[in-house]
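Sequence design from tokenized structure. All designs in this work follow the same two-part layout: the structure record, then the generated sequence. An example of the structure record is given first.
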């Protein structure tokens, strides 16, 4: 399966970098290179951004040196090298692990929507929400990279 087919299967929240969308795709790759610092687990890794998420600052990358490996990282758009665990690695593994993470995102958003409809959660507005954040379990399944710690 080609990456464009994989990205399309993730749904409408993802834009394939091979397609035009009005966003400067070169800026995404440039920001990723800027943010990944020497202490980051992916420092020096040959990452290719293949898609970006519309609803937040996630990028989906394929590892050029290990083509079966994919990762979702959350950019901060600070415009500078980050410190600590940023940019966060939300998912890391083979394609099946990326799909599992995305299924977790979909389930969490669906659960939040039910709570909002029942009045047990304040809907997200332009200024955020006073409700607790939606938490999705990170997926770190790439076995040969012990530097990437398991998610929360």
């Amino acid at each position: 399966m080609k990456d464009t087919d994989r990205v399309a299967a993730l749904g409408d929240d993802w834009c394939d970098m091979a397609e035009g969308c009005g966003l400067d795709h070169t800026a995404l790759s440039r920001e990723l290179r800027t943010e990944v610092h020497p202490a980051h687990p992916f420092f020096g890794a040959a990452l290719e951004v293949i898609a970006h998420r519309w609803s937040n600052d996630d990028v989906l990358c394929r590892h050029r040196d290990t083509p079966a490996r994919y990762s979702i990282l959350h950019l901060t758009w600070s415009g500078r090298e980050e410190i600590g665990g940023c940019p966060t690695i939300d998912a890391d593994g083979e394609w099946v692990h990326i799909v599992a993470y995305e299924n977790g995102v979909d389930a969490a958003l669906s659960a939040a929507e039910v709570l909002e409809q029942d009045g047990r959660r304040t809907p997200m507005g332009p200024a955020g929400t006073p409700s607790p954040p939606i938490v999705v379990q990170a997926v770190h399944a790439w076995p040969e990279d012990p530097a990437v710690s398991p998610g929360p």
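The radius of gyration is 16 Å. We note this feature because it recurs in several other targets discussed in the main text.
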